Amino acid sequence: MGGSSGVRRLAEPVERLFGGIIGSVCAVRTSAPHVVLTYDDGPEPGSTEAVLEALRAFRATATFFVLMTRVRRFPGLLAEVVAEGHEVGLHGLDHRRLTGFPADEVERRTRSGRAELEDVIGRAVTWFRPPYGTQSPRTWRAVTRDGLVPVLWGPTLRDWQDVSQDERVAGALRGSRGGAIVLGHDGFAGPEDGVDDGPAPLVDRGDLTRRLLRACGERGLVGRSLGDALVVGEQSRRAWFRR
Question: Where is the NodB homology domain (predicted)?
Fold first, then answer.
C-alpha cells in the first residue's frame, strides 16, 4: 500500500497551495468510541457472506467499497450487504489505478460507475475510495467534480498479505481509536478486475472480522460504518496524494 512519509511530502505543499481545500476523508472527529470499518474489492462469494455474519454477530456496521466488475457478477451478494443495513461506496469500475488515466477518463469512469451502482442499490452513493489509495490533485478534482468524496484510511488489517491473523489484528489495533478508519477487504482484485497482484492471500475474512471486533470491544470500541460514525462526528480531511 505504500508508506505514509511519501504521502506527507507530496500532500503538505499541495494543501498549502490550494488553501487547504483539497482533502480526502482519513478519519472522523468524534468523542464516541466508534471505529470505522471499511471493506474493499468485493463482493466476493464466500468472503462477503462471512464478513456479514461476523458484523451481525457483533451488531456492527461497515462501509463496503465495491468494484463494478464484481457487482455485475454477484449482484445478489451486494443486495445482502444493503439488506443488512451496511453502507456502500464506489471503489471503481475495476481496480486499475486512476493515476494511469487522463483526467477526462477518470471523470467518465467515476461518473458512470456511480450511476450504475446507484441503479443497482437504489440509493445515492457519496463515498469513493481510489484503487490502491493512489490519487493525484488531477484525479482528485476529476472524482470530486461528480460529487463523490474520496475516503482513505488509517490502520490496516494487512489482509492482502500472507501474515497470521494475530499479526493482522495487532497491526490494526495499534492505530485504532475513536474515529479511526480501518482498511480491510472482503475480496481480492484479480485479472477479471483489470489487475494482476499475484495469488490471493490465505485469510479467513469472517474470522478476521470477529477477532478485530472482539479486540475492539475489549478496548471499549465498536465498529461503525462511515455514515453511522458521522451521525455524531465530523469528517477529518487531509491532502493525501500518491502515485
Answer: 33-216
pTM above 0.90, yes or no: yes
CA distances from 187 to 75, 184, 206 (A): 14, 9, 11
Cα 130 from Cα 166, distance rounded (Å): 28
Catalytic residues: 40, 185
Reported as a single tens digit per residue, the pLDDT across 110-140 is 999 999 999 999 999 999 999 999 999 999 9
User: Which helix (H) or strand (E) segment is 181 a member of?
Assistant: strand 181-185
Q: What is the mean pLDDT of the segment spanning 85-110?
A: 97
Smallest Cα–Cα separation from 130: which of 159, 156, 158, 100? 100
Number of H helices, E strands in the chain: 9, 9
**Count of beta carbons in the 10 Å neighbourhood of residue 102:** 11
Closest CA to 43 of 107, 106, 117: 117
Assigned architecture for domain 4-238: Alpha-Beta Barrel (3.20)
> Residue 242 has what pLDDT?
83
Q: Where are the beta strands (DSSP E) in 60-132?
A: 63-67, 87-92, 127-128
Query: Is the model's pLDDT at 34 over the cut of 50?
Result: yes
Instruction: Tell me the three cell numbers of residue 27.
Output: 478519519
If DSSP codes are grouped into helix, strand and coil, which group holds residue 42? strand
All cell numbers assigned to 176: 485504532
Residue 15: CB partners within 8 Å, gap ≥ 6? Answer: 22, 23, 238, 239
Does the bond joining 199 to the residue before it have cis omega, within 30 degrees of 0? no
Contact by Cβ (8 Å): 34, 221? yes
